[in-house]
Amino acid sequence: MPESTTVIRTLRIINRPAIGGPILNAALLARHLPKPFETMLVGGVCESHEAEATKLLAGLNWRQMESMGRSLHPLKDFASYRDLRKLIREFRPHIVHTHAAKPGALGRLAARAEGVPVVVHTFHGHVFHSYFNPLKTRIFLGIERYLATKSDALIAISPEQKIELSEAFRIAPPDKFRVIPLGLDLDRFQFDAETKRMAFRTAYGLQADDVAVVITGRLVGIKNHSLFLRALAMAKPRTGRRLVGFIVGDGDMRATIEQEARKLGFVFSGMDSRNSGEDLVFTSWRTDIDTINAGADIVALTSLNEGTPVSLIEASASGCPVVSTRVGGVESVVLNEGTGLLVESNDVHAFAEQLARLAENPSLRAQLGQAGTAHVRSKFAYQRLVTDVTALYHELLERKK
Q: pLDDT tens digit string along 177-207?
């Protein structure tokens, strides 16, 4: 094992540099891990509807692997495995750290095949419920249990996720897991907030009393945008204020979500068009989420399953209250009735009630938003993430001596 004064090479593997929790986490670690760590970040190619986090990669030792993608593809996945083994032989890392499911499988197998001393995997979420049918779920559980035996440590990003993975799904014994919450650069969500708020609300013609409700994320089934639309439609007649929904993101279900919005009577527009009297906007992907959150009055999340939702951390860092389903690691981010309001999964009536409650009560919005900022800044700043991961790496390397 390397002495403390020598370089410790770390190969960090992600699926693709699409905007979201894994790339935010991985890029910050690649950029800020202290000496003697030297990091190479490797990942695949974004899909056509995804926005690449180009700015996050600037200045990093980044390698793109054309064979790696999000979807399962046996031939390309074997090519990725072969390419990873070749890269490991060239870079000779002391640590391989994988992020999310496919990189976790290919990366851990390649690392063990090449004799890498320390192998770590971070679960940013999981696919063990609300994704696949029971048979396919059992297959993925079996794969993850096997991969756990190839790992020196497994990172859960919330206490709830650790319990779920170790006890409910029995991926590995609890002592193999470490809870290391996400760490993000939260300073930009406080900087020049009033100017950003005015810019956003002016761009979309929002009046002072209008309530902007934002949901951010991929337009895929697990995010359950249908609940967002139905709850927003139900909340509108319950408040005297004009509610305007903003769907930030893109994905395979864009057309389906638009179709449901029409059926519910929404007047909506897209990124490059505007409709008179619109009450719903599809913005597609935006990189200026700090500006969007500054202009928002409520941030929503309706997912069926989550790891630690970055959109809610960023909302609270912006001083914006949230309404969310109580799933996965949400409760590690949101304090119910303290920084936001939580409802059970798929409870459209409760979700609508809480949207209307916040819409009608500006003082409650301010109270929850202020508390949220203090909460996430103490818990999810990237400096804490770097400290936690550095300590884990040193511990695991010491065990190998």
A: 999 998 998 989 989 999 999 999 999 999 9
State the angle between helix axes of 225-235 and 348-359 in degrees (0 to 180), rounded to the nearest 10: 50
pLDDT tens, residue by residue, 340-396: 999 999 999 999 999 999 999 999 999 999 999 999 998 999 999 999 999 999 999
Q: What is the DSSP string of 45-108?
A: ---TTSPB-HHHHTTS-EEE-TT--SS--HHHHHHHHHHHHHHHHHH--SEEEEESHHHHHHHH
Note the pTM of the prediction, 2 decimals. Answer: 0.75
Q: How far is CA 277 from CA 209, 242, 249, 251, 259, in A?
A: 15, 11, 22, 26, 18
Torsion, CA 159, CA 165, CA 168, CA 171, rounded to 10: -150
DSSP 293-355: HHH-SEEEE--SS-SS-HHHHHHHHTT--EEEE--TTGGGT--BTTTEEEE-TT-HHHHHHHH
